[in-house]
Design a protein that fits this description.
Blueprint: H1 2-9, H2 11-20, H3 25-45, H4 47-60, H5 65-76, H6 78-106, H7 116-126, H8 130-144, H9 165-172, H10 175-191, H11 196-222
Helix pairs in contact: 1-2, 2-10, 3-6, 3-8, 4-5, 6-7, 7-10, 9-11, 10-11
Length: 224
Amino acid sequence: MKNIIDTFLNPGSVFKSIKEKPEWLMPLIVVLVVMAILSILTISTTRDLISAQQIEAMKERNATDEQIEQAMKFSSGPIMLVFGGLGAIISTLVILLIFAALLNLFIPMLGGNGSFKLVFSVVSFSALVKIPGNIIRWILIFLKHSLLVSTSFALFVPNLDTHSFAYRLLNQIDFFILWEMLLVAYGISITNNLKKQNAYILIFALWIASVLLSVAVGGAFGRH
């Protein structure tokens, strides 16, 4: 538990201890459980907004009144909360595993020592930053009663069209994700004996690639 707290206060000591003894299970469990709880809270807080979006989308697809009624029964029941919690757990776990696998693939190419267990330990501890980020987003959702909240660079241009390329790009540059990426770069430079410069180049190259991919995918779906 000390390492979990020190991730926010003294990450260097956490990563040095990980180098001696890799540890990923505890931080991973904490992250997954909290993400599931926050997902359930978000759904509970915004059921009416989610239902309204579903109805609008189904009407655009020319769904029948019976189909809409069945969808509303699903979204208003407890099963929606279960799927929301499980979805948060699965999606977060898959993203962390893929991220760690990519890092472990490229680290040796940049002069570091490959070790998936070490990398996944760093990624799991760094993911703890998702917790305050998602708590703040849930508070904003609760206060504004809107799903359109942000902790990203999009805050600096509040009048941008949320469907525009500029908004989608700025919205991907999230302050908490940036913090998380900085922690991962710092961590792998310590645990995997990777030069700091190479660590930051690797992390931000992968992050920028993911940002551009998300913006492109969002734009493609947004046009339909």
